Amino acid sequence: xxxxxxxxxxxxxxxxxxxxxxxxxxxxxxxxxxxxxxxxxxxxxxxxxxxxxxxxxxxxxxxxxxxxxxxxxxxxxxxxxxxxxxxx
Amino acid sequence: xxxxxxxxxxxxxxxxxxxxxxxxxxxxxxxxxxxxxxxxxxxxxxxxxxxxxxxxxxxxxxxxxxxxxxxxxxxxxxxxxxxxxxxxxxxxxxxxxxxxxxxxxxxxxxxxxxxxxxxxxxxxxxxxxxxxxxxxxxxxxxxxxxxxxxxxxxxxxxxxxxxxxxxxxxxxxxxxxxxxxxxxxxxxxxxxxxxxxxxxxxxxxxxxxxxxxxxxxxxxxxxxxxxxxxxxxxxxxxxxxxxxxxxxxxxxxxxxxxxxxxxxxxxxxxxxxxxxxxxxxxxxxxxxxxxxxxxxxxxxxxxxxxxxxxxxxxxxxxxxxxxxxxxxxxxxxxxxxxxxxxxxxxxxxxxxxxxxxxxxxxxxxxxxxxxxxxxxxxxxxxxxxxxxxxxxxxxxxxxxxxxxxxxxxxxxxxxxxxxxxxxxxxxxxxxxxxxxxxxxxxxxxxxxxxxxxxxxxxxxxxxxxxxxxxxxxxxxxxxxxxxxxxxxxxxxxxxxxxxxxxxxxxxxxxxxxxxxxxxxxxxxxxxxxxxxxxxxxxxxxxxxxxxxxxxxxxxxxxxxxxxxxxxxxxxxxxxxxxxxxxxxxxxxxxxxxxxxxxxxxxxxxxxxxxxxxxxxxxxxxxxxxxxxxxxxxxxxxxxxxxxxxxxxxxxxxxxxxxxxxxxxxxxxxxxxxxxxxxxxxxxxxxxxxxxxxxxxxxxxxxxxxxxxxxxxxxxxxxxxxxxxxxxxxxxxxxxxxxxxxxxxxxxxxxxxxxxxxxxxxxxxxxxxxxxxxxxxxxxxxxxxxxxxxxxxxxxxxxxxxxxxxxxxxxxxxxxxxxxxxxxxxxxxxxxxxxxxxxxxxxxxxxxxxxxxxxxxxxxxxxxxxxxxxxxxxxxxxxxxxxxxxxxxxxxxxxxxxxxxxxxxxxxxxxxxxxxxxxxxxxxxxxxxxxxxxxxxxxxxxxxxxxxxxxxxxxxxxxxxxxxxxxxxxxxxxxxxxxxxxxxxxxxxxxxxxxxxxx
Lengths: 88, 998
Fold this sequence. Notes:
Oligomer: heterodimer
Largest sheet of chain A: 4 strands, antiparallel
Strand content of chain A: 35-45%
Number of domains of chain B: 7
Strand order of the largest sheet of chain A: 3-4-5-6
Largest sheet of chain B: 7 strands, mixed
Number of helices of chain B: 24
Distance between the termini of chain A: 23 Å
Shape of chain B: elongated
Number of strands of chain B: 50
Helix content of chain B: 10-25%
CATH topology of chain A: Folate-binding fold
Number of strands of chain A: 6
Strand content of chain B: 25-35%
Radius of gyration of chain B: 38 Å
Number of helices of chain A: 1
Number of domains of chain A: 1
Structural class of chain A: mainly beta
């Protein structure tokens, strides 16, 4: 079980969190015309990286805040976590 | 009762407390403090089981976790458990044990024929035998293998024991309480670190209990006792015996298995049997010691053959002699300690040493005791079937590949030592890449991946002096990093005899023309010849050899076999061990009970139960409940001998004819506040929300980004910047997370707060033509006419002193209202409504009637919102706004979603108006078409229409909009039904929606 540092609450057990997928995906702006390809990339296409990965987590049994974490997908090492408003 | 092999004075057992137990039906006696193994050995019982493949007689080999053979079926207090390690389970009153893997008895086992058929059971026999003919597999081969293989029998009784889980955090976890563990834990504790010291065995001290050493002029055991009692007094230290750290997981999470109840003769009702500790430690020190490995020789699995350290442990800890005429076979000095212990107790051993003449202090000491030593000797093979009675020994040639001469030496036990293997399992589990140390011919931990360090014998340090010095140093340094304290401690002086180096001799060569079975892995019955075959057949990778021969794959994880197996592969391949590599260690280190893993989460504690405030009322009124997520909802209220279908028809009919009341507390409720609340809804729902007036509700559908319908519900504008959203019961949590995601991650500029209020409001739905009459009686001061409270209207009222929210919304298709009050008043609201509705024939209705009502109205619910449907499929395309963007809108332009022949919801009635259509049926054109019959749709929801008094279903059908009037078949292969159905509109009742607006 991972030990995840919520940027709001501090170190907590993985049990308290829900995984939220790739944290680098940018949603196309509302009311902006996007091509099929762009939309498809946004909805479906994800990289399955080995190594450093920026991802979203949701402190679902805690403060209910979403945040980003930089994690190594092979070793599970978590290098950094940051609020959504912060750089990671 | 006689314990013929029990010594008068040795041992740490309590001779005042005799314990009677039974083994294979016979009664024996032992003492408090014995293990089952030591008690049996005290009685001279060696034969405990039959081997896995060849059913060869097997006896005890080790004295703890190293034991490969003595796995017994053990019954305590009527509960029976298979594969219990006899060398680890403590003797307790009433314990009874039986041998496994033998029939009819361990003494006469029919399966032993396998031993003589062993050419049919070569390496990989599972893969080679039983292959053809294919048709034999299910009926003949598989049942045969299942019967022949496996060990004990799992109990089918309910396990009434209590198991617990515990979470703990500490600065330093020390696994193992030998000299390394004690000294490091002590040093760390003195620096103020929060320490947990875990010992697998009942007694602390590890090898200090058996080695003839002194520390600070105390015996090893006395020193260990002194340190432990000091540690126990310290508030920052948790000291646990009978507790094994068996798993090392990510981020320094270790799991420890504590045995609490099994050794107690009497325990209170709430004493758990076992407890699982999840320990997150800042640093972990692995002082797990080492395990002696055997030397391989012919018939080395004969009962009466022991590891030499085990024989010593039986003497020193349990006061038991494993034999009175021992032969000791060794390639190193440590077996000489065993010889000395025998001698002290009046037994004269003979030592066969593969090395040439040695003269260390220890060997000298043995010589001084006039113990007979034969250097350059090896055991070629043991003789005896159920018990060793002599060994064939040989004088080794100079190159140790053959013998100069041989002789028979009579004996009643053999103690073998092939040097020591550090217990690196936990280090390996943590991700530590091991490295090979050829000074000790074994793998040791190398580079840590997590915050762990191995110390003492686990790290290949085999002298006491070095172990203690390192222990204090590392314990002090590691804790200093955390606490920043540095309490100086005087490192105690230790005293031990020095050893001469070991010899790399690990396997006695076969004399010409002889073909003894020489076992490498006892538990899985893997012999030297099996590994040779595997290599001959082309297996090279050690991982493949392991799987093909099953070497090291038994529950003992190859503790005594791994290195000898690697050595053998290396020899044949003409490689060195580091080139061969090693297999991976995985948790658990020893088998853990399922009970401990499950803990308290069984039965009704498996998951939380959510009950509405009206639950007790439902219970009193014969509600039959159904699970909706964690919620309990009344499915129907049983009257007399009614069946489910009779009750639900009665309830639904009463709604259509009079008025019904349904508990809708479980619907998800989300309170949405803020200046941008309407804007959020406008982006989340497919329809327009900005202009919804205050005091009005609106039905909305939300999509996922891929265009699939996620959830639906009504949302009401309570005030300008305040909305009350409802979701389906099962999607409530997902919808909240969804809103939070968009608010926090995608559109943080929106000034909105969302919070779940599901449990803050109790809700009831009042439905049926008489519902307004009931409402008027509940709120006599309120104007509830169609003009004052029209369809989709919202007002607030006072229900006999209780604030209430009244929504005019309908799920049943009837004139209907939903009333919410704060949860505490839920039962009051409910009872008052029943009371006021009495004169209008009010009846409660459950989820089954609720479904009937919504299905015949053509309202979609869970079965239609199944993660595969878009708004069009559900005839909800009218709710899609063309004037704004929303989540998932762009996906609706995908080709497949625009297709003319796309699936769409339809109604279905059986042509005979009688046969009910099973949910999940396939819709096909021709019931007799060749399989696979092309499926053009499926039945999502079925009910008995109370309005039309015949079955009615909803289905999702390809090209549904053009199929009305067509006749199809609903096929249910599961129920073996083919029902002819007619496709009709999905709105079976009140097409124009007049009733909800009446």
